[in-house]
User: Fold this.
Amino acid sequence: MSAPAIYVAGADDYYLARIPALPGCNASGRTRDDAVVNVRRAFRQYRELLQSHGLSLEHVKDIDPDRLPVEDLPASGLVPDEDKPLEEHEIRDFLHQFEASQAALVALVEGLSPDALEKKPTEQMWSVREALEHVMEAETQFLAKLERWPSDPLNTLQAVHRLVFQRFSVMEPEDWRDQQVMGRRWTTKRVMRRLLEHEFEHYSHIKEIMAALSADRPPE
Assistant:
């Protein structure tokens, strides 16, 4: 395993620093130096947060983030060891950490009122709800990167479909929703309609792509 280090990437007034020895630990800054300072602090905060939710972190307990060297993130976007095959314990470790991370996030927001979820500190900042929706959307997009095209392309898609089916299969008529979300009115039926519309819209879209590709293909 490679020695722990801080990896930085960015330009202009946005830089992102990571400490892959503790996967998930990252922080941004307007300059490279700001990002490094912030990620050293974030390492301690993230380690403490995960430990407070029951995660054992023996492998990083002796790391002093202030002593870590700083390097540029490779052009590939991969940090050292990310191109090596998975070991069984790495999947197990990820699941334990993801569970602790999820527990921390839920504990942070579960007591917020509907108004608090919607309120923006400034016009330029997201509301808590917008941030949570971004997390959900991004996690689905990250999962899609695991697909092996074209031999095994549908695991994530089918998993998302199972999530939708599971959410509605436990729903009773009295679970009806009629609420404002980021200034727009959403009811349960509107969500149901949009799910179906979006699926069919992109079914048709994919058919158009396939037809265009077929038309461009030279005859055999």
